[in-house]
Amino acid sequence: FYFSSYEESPLEKYVYSVDSKGQKKKLTPNKGWNNATFSKTYQYYINTFSNIDTPPVISLYNAKNKLVRVLEDNQQAQETIKGYAIAPKEFIQIPAADGKTMLNAWIMKPLDFDPNKKYPVIIYVYGGPHAQMITDSWTAGAGVYLHYLSQEGFIVFTLDNRGSADRGEAFEQVIHRQCGQAEMRDQMVGVEYLKSLPFVDAERIGTDGWSYGGFMSTSLKINYPESIKVSTAGGPVIDWSYYEIMYGERYMDTPQENPDGYELTSLKNKTDKLQGKLLMIHCTTDPVVVWQHSLS
User: Fold this and answer.
1) Contact 141, 158 (CB under 8 A)
2) How far apart, in whole angstroms, are the C-alpha atoms of residue 294 and residue 296?
3) How far apart, in Å, are the Cα atoms of 95 and each of 63, 91, 158, 166, 184?
4) What is the 3-state secondary structure (H, E, C) of 31-78?
5) Are 159 and 134 in contact (CB under 8 A)?
């Protein structure tokens, strides 16, 4: 049997085999993020490996875990990337709002960072289940746009709150029937951490997120206007009763079973709390987070 696991660290993923006697073997020794795609006969598998310093390396192995050949080493990409304005990311851990769980995050400072200056911050947030932003993988979840923000003089910060994936059942299920609540509390722990840094301009902290991240970005702006200066929300979930049943009722139960939870998490009922600037971006043909969310 073959499986992948985060047991060594939630930042790292490895592939293992286990035989009928329970003897486990680690198939992917390289430190970082590993995926395996097996052939139909399970005689071979392709391992895709990366870490924060190494672009994806794609290799073919046989069932005895012997390297057949490297299909792509991406050495050219690694050399090319050195010519771009890519700021390094620093992994950090911050105690969650429950006071005991440690949350993973990274911070990216401007390339010309001066510790004697104060910088504005963009918090890139997702926060939902079945997703993990903080990984020891190539780019560590930071797309080109976040690097652009860093290049333009922003500090960029991302945190995996409780409710996100790959930290176990209790960590993820804390959101049940009340999406966004524990997540906001944990994100605000991250905000307080940022405010404690001498080089952060506490008056200029903004949030940006899409889909569940749009829900989180809007939630943070509405509930914590004293801390969040501006926010952008792409395809945001505004009311969970509008969301697809397969996903929404998995985490929130039905509106009939959990009316208080739907009322608590709805953002259309809290527009009177909105202070400052919130930019919403929505595709009119979004089939998942339908346009009615933003329109409402």
Assistant:
1) yes
2) 5
3) 42, 14, 14, 17, 14
4) CCEEEEEECCCCCEEEEEEEECCEEEEEEEEECCCCEEEEEECCHHHH
5) yes
Strands in 24-26's sheet, in edge-to-edge order, are 2-5, 14-18, 24-26
Q: Is the Cβ–Cβ distance between 149 and 156 less than 8 Å?
A: yes
* Structure confidence by residue, pLDDT tens digits, 83-121: 787 888 999 999 999 999 999 999 999 988 999 999 999
Convert the pLDDT of each residue in 156-168 to its tens digit: 999 999 999 999 9
Overall pTM surpassing 0.90 (yes/no): yes
Is residue 54 within 8 Å of 139, Cβ to Cβ? no
What residue has token string 């995050």?
105
- How far apart CA 264 and CA 279 sit, in angstroms, is 22
Q: For residue 123, give the nearest of 158, 72, 174 by alpha carbon.
A: 158
Vertex 165: Cα angle to 163 and 167 (nearest 5): 90
**Amino acid at position 150, single letter:** S
Q: Which two tokens stand for residue 56?
A: 């994806």
